[in-house]
Amino acid sequence: MDSHKTNMMSQPPAYIAPMAPPPQQLQHFQPTTQQIILEQPTVLGPDPVGITCPNCRSRVVTLVDDMTTMKTHSFAVLLAVLGCFCGCCCIPYCTKSCLAQKHTCPVCRSMIGIYNN
Ligand SMILES: [Zn+2]
């Protein structure tokens, strides 16, 4: 009885991976499905313009409201200083060129832009 057991710690054979090629740096550019919307910035003028509302994405024609600006007030003050304060200082408030036009969306009522001439 030879009892000298060879203590063959029978290790499981080391799994030798086949020389697989390393995972390639896949440089495939996935076609992105997201659309890049290159919208021409609509130049706002004193008149209503057709525009896609940035807020509600509706294709709308803007509503234009006159609004007073610093320029309006400056003109009024200037006219008042010049002595035309018997009503003339109100002229800037009626003159289109002294007012800014505020474009709003008729659908969601959000302000789209201001035309300041
Ligand atoms: Zn809108």
TrEMBL record:
UniProt xrefs under PROSITE patterns: LITAF (PS51837)
SMART domains documented for this protein: LITAF (SM00714)
Location(s) in or outside the cell: Endosome membrane; Late endosome membrane; Lysosome membrane
Record-annotated LITAF domain positions: 33-117
Gene Ontology terms, MF aspect: zinc ion binding
Protein name per Swiss-Prot or TrEMBL: LITAF domain-containing protein
Gene Ontology terms: cellular component: late endosome membrane; lysosomal membrane
Species this protein is from: Chironomus riparius
UniProt biased composition (Polar residues): 1-10
Pfam families noted in UniProt: zf-LITAF-like
Protein family membership: Belongs to the CDIP1/LITAF family.
Keywords: Membrane, Metal-binding, Transmembrane, Transmembrane helix, Zinc
Keyword Transmembrane: yes
Chain ranges passing through the membrane: 75-94
Sequence segments annotated as region (Disordered): 1-22
Record-linked InterPro entries: LITAF (IPR006629), LITAF_fam (IPR037519)
Membrane topology, record value: Peripheral membrane protein
